[in-house]
């Protein structure tokens, strides 16, 4: 039973890592904590839902089409709004993203009502694989595999491309980056665009695995934030580890008492903070 | 002229850090800048690179008015700079530092820049440390990386800010030899330096700044013999 709980927790961690990867990316590059991150996940979930229900697309195709839309949305958001408030003072971007969170929640409430929705996943919803000692759901397995694929892809982008080097250079020193011909504001816009693509992937699995409504964004933000902090600011693999720790803590908490699920995740977060205040694998200096 | 500053001034509140500076630098020249701490030397570099915009005056680079042009545009036009306190991208390797500067500073594909970067690493004696993470380098190697990274941007005008500061005599000699070789290829150099023997062994003219004002410009021997310069800069009673 405990092995099964452990495996389910690890797989749940994949979903939390997907929630957190975009947040980690944006924080790592521009030290911006996007308080609207959870609401952007919910927004993307509705976008995928529109593709599925209005145009009859499969969830995968709907998500694939939503990704460039979300990239453009992220790029515009950064260019038109966030770049204007980024600076030495961390308060303005916090206030602006908090405002964006409120606007998104109310906009979604107006557009889609408070009713819970779910992205239909067809036969995958109940599908499972018998691995002998444990049985795992296909959807959680796909979620975890997608989280690893997303983190591998982001790491490849970071460490093996010119754009990735520009991300890391800008993250290190934005003024010097400008003196090397890099346009930090353009780099930030691309980074937020990429983060929104990851957000769309997270939204796809969120919407297929659970009900969602316009109000659930802030809770997703907290899970994402905890995963990023546990992993160490700026480390994508650390973010996956953070997601897994929260997932495992939640499933073990739920196994002991269903009411303890969420609490156990937060306790795990506090425990890591007590032992390793900078997280498990910190990369960012600030 | 590769660079021309006409009546350039910069103030922070009531403090005038650059005061009506006018100077023209011919292509291929090596110009040294000296002055006491706080004279406005680094601010002058910031004005040339576009990190700081002037309150008054005009800056021309390669015959084009760049007074309000952003820093990244000036880099792509050929203004390369090293910092007084080395500021490498600490999380990147030495080679990645150069590759990034070359790709974005020159505006080309990284693949086309690899050979040029390797050559610069060789010239600045960093080839063996190409894969070392920049944050772990010694002071000398950080200074070398500053120079190498500025060269990687393909500068027509190279601004060196106290690159010999803090080095031993032997290290300084090696660095001067490298700068001489760069200058021999007709790269225009403006060099701020307190290590005067190093500076005077390379530059053709010296410019002296004090309280943001140009108080002298001319051949190094002439400048060093000037009573005003010796009083203000060297602190000698003559």
Automatic annotation (TrEMBL), chain B:
Gene3D superfamilies: P-loop containing nucleotide triphosphate hydrolases (3.40.50.300)
PROSITE patterns assigned: ABC_TRANSPORTER_2
Nucleotide-binding recorded as keyword: yes
Name of one Pfam family that matches: ABC_tran
Assigned keywords, A-Z: ATP-binding, Nucleotide-binding, Transport
Annotated ranges, domain ABC transporter: 3-236
Keyword Electron transport recorded: no
GO MF term (any one): ATP binding
Xref: SUPFAM superfamilies: P-loop containing nucleoside triphosphate hydrolases (SSF52540)
The protein's name: Branched-chain amino acid transport system ATP-binding protein
């Amino acid at each position: 039973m405990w092995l099964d709980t452990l495996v389910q927790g690890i797989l749940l961690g994949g979903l939390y890592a997907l929630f957190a990867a975009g947040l980690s990316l944006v924080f790592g590059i521009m030290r911006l904590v996007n308080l609207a991150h959870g609401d952007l996940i919910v927004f993307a979930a509705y976008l995928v839902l529109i593709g599925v229900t209005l145009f009859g697309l499969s969830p995968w195709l709907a998500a694939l089409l939503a990704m460039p839309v979300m990239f453009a949305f992220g790029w515009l958001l950064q260019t038109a709004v966030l770049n204007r408030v980024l600076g030495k003072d961390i308060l303005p971007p916090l206030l602006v993203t908090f405002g964006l969170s409120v606007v998104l929640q109310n906009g979604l409430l107006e557009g889609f009502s408070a009713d819970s929705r779910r992205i239909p996943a067809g036969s995958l919803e109940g599908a499972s694989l018998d691995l002998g000692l444990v049985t795992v759901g296909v959807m959680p397995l796909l979620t975890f595999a997608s989280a690893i694929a997303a983190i591998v892809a982001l790491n490849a982008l970071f460490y093996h491309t010119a754009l990735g080097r520009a991300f890391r250079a800008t993250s290190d020193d934005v003024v010097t980056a400008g003196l090397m011909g890099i346009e930090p504001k353009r780099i930030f816009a691309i980074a937020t665009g990429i983060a929104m693509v990851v957000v769309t992937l997270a939204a796809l699995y969120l919407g297929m695995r659970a009900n969602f409504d316009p109000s659930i964004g802030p809770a997703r933000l907290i899970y994402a934030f905890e995963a990023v902090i546990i992993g160490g600011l700026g480390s994508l693999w650390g973010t996956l580890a953070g997601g897994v720790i929260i997932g495992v803590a939640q499933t073990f908490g739920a196994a002991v008492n269903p009411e303890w699920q969420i609490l156990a995740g937060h306790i795990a977060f506090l425990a890591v903070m007590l032992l390793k205040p900078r997280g498990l694998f910190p990369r960012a200096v600030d | 002229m590769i660079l021309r500053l006409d009546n350039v001034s910069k103030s922070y509140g009531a403090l005038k850090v650059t005061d009506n500076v006018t100077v023209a630098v011919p292509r291929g020249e090596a110009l040294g800048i000296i002055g006491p701490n706080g004279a406005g030397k680094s601010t002058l570099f910031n004005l040339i690179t576009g990190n700081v915009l002037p309150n008054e005056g005009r800056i021309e680079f390669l015959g084009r008015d760049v007074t309000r042009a952003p820093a990244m545009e000036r880099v792509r036009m050929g203004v390369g700079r090293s910092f007084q306190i080395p500021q490498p991208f600490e999380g990147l390797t030495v080679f990645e530092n150069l590759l990034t500067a070359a790709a974005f500073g020159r505006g080309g594909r990284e693949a086309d820049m690899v050979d040029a970067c390797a050559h610069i690493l060789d010239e600045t004696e960093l080839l063996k440390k190409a894969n070392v993470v920049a944050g772990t380098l010694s002071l000398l190697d950080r200074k070398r990386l500053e120079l190498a990274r500025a060269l990687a941007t393909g500068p027509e005008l190279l601004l060196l800010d106290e690159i010999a500061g803090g080095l031993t005599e032997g290290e300084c000699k090696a660095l001067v030899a490298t700068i001489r070789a760069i200058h021999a290829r007709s790269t225009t150099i403006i060099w701020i330096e307190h290590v005067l023997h190093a500076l005077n062994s390379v530059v053709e003219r010296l410019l002296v700044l004090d309280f943001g004002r140009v108080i002298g410009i001319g051949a190094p021997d002439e400048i060093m013999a000037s009573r005003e310069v010796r009083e203000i800069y060297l602190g000698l009673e003559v």
